[in-house]
Amino acid sequence: MELAEELQKQTNNTHRFAYYIKGAVLADAGRLQEAVDKFHSCIRLQPQDPEPLKQVAKCLYRQGRFQLALEAYLEADKLSKQPDPEIYCALAECANSVAGVGGAGVEWARAAQAAGGGERAAALLARLLLGAGDVPGALAAYDHALASHACGADTLAAAGALSLRAGDPRRAFQLLGEALSQQPTQHAAALALAAMLLQHKDVDAALARLKVALSAHPTCVAAHSNLGLALLTKKKFVAALTCLSRAATGAPLSARAAHNLGLALLWCRRPASAFCRLACAAALRPTRHHTVLLIGIALERLGDSRADAAYNRAVALSPEDPLVRLNLAGRHARAGRLADAVEEARIVAQLLEYTPDAQVSSNLATLLSLLPKIELQEIELPAAESEHSTTIDDTQETKEFQPDEV
User: Could you tell me which residues the TPR repeats occupy (predicted)?
Assistant: First the structure.
């Protein structure tokens, strides 16, 4: 700033580059409005130069004045003598932030990619397509970016996470592994890879990845929540509750964090605390049937008569879910409504013909073995794999049922 001031004194305040440097320094310091004034002075000295106008637009965007930033970038595009991918990318981001012109953002991103915007333009196009709900288009954009450019860890992680959501775990594992090989502390890649490992029951490897994610982003709610669930499967209840409590505290309006903490509290036989957390989750997301089902289980353990209403509400929200139906059958059996339990068991068996699930099948077989032999000959059980464990203790005597867990 001192050198720029000396240049201004020597040239009687007509040194254009000194104004530009002052504006750049002020923008880096966060003094955006002062930076805009300096860039305007630079524009007055040479109106045909698009660079100061681009910096003005960038400051306006950082101020949240997206419409003015969009207009400034359009003016800079008019002054530019050749297609500028930086301007097109900025136009796409501005259009995506301005209400009513979000669709134009995709077109600007395509223009940036055609103008040679490289990895930034391709990743931006994929992100905008994903925001618009076009998952196949976003996958194609990421594939084009990966085939055409040497992409960094952030792009690889985003492409891997999207592949995982799209149902291509092999491709996702490859991309996430490449992202972590480039940047071992890449938060998104470590988190997504840990989710994959948890799905495949590799808890120890998932724990290692989650610790990497937390070292890079200590306040990540999803990492704390997944770490708590992983510790819960290893029966480290105190550590699991600590992690899940941190997640719920860090995101008090997250229905998923409250749901996970309520589930852990049920595992730890604290139904009153679990009910409070699950009620918060249901208030935030009333249509999540598994949350309502857990509320029914908590109320049943508390001896509350409203448990039946919660079970029925869960079934109404998802009548085709065999797990929900199985829990309702168990509730009927424990309440002595054996005919209703048999009817629900029959419905579960029919649902499992279309969506086989070895765990649910095994639990259904255990439930039927505990019921008195009434009308059971009509229920044909699907085959259940022996290596899956059951959540119902088959050492219970007939009619001695305990509240089961999801």
Answer: 16-49
Q: Which amino acid is at 340?
A: D
Each residue's pLDDT tens digit, 118-159: 888 888 888 888 888 888 888 888 888 888 888 888 889 888
Please say whether the beta carbons of 244 and 231 come within 8 A.
no
39 within some domain:
yes
129's tokens: 């397509």
| Domain carrying residue 62 | 1-81
| Structural domain count, the chain | 1
State residue 377's pLDDT score: 47
Using only C-alpha atoms, the chain has a radius of gyration, in whole angstroms, of 29
How far is residue 41 CA from its own chain's centroid?
Answer: 45
- How far CA 220 is from CA of 48, 224, 327, 367, in Å, comes to 46, 6, 33, 40
Q: Pick the residue with more confidence: 259 or 100?
A: 259
| pTM as predicted | 0.70
Q: What 3 state SS string does 288-350 have?
A: CHHHHHHHHHHHHHCCCCCHHHHHHHHHHHCCCCHHHHHHHHHHHHHCCCHHHHHHHHHHHHH
> Is residue 75 one of the residues assigned to a domain?
yes
Q: What is the CATH number of the domain that holds 69?
A: 1.25.40.10
The verdict on residue 400 lying in a domain is no
Query: Is residue 34 in a domain?
Result: yes
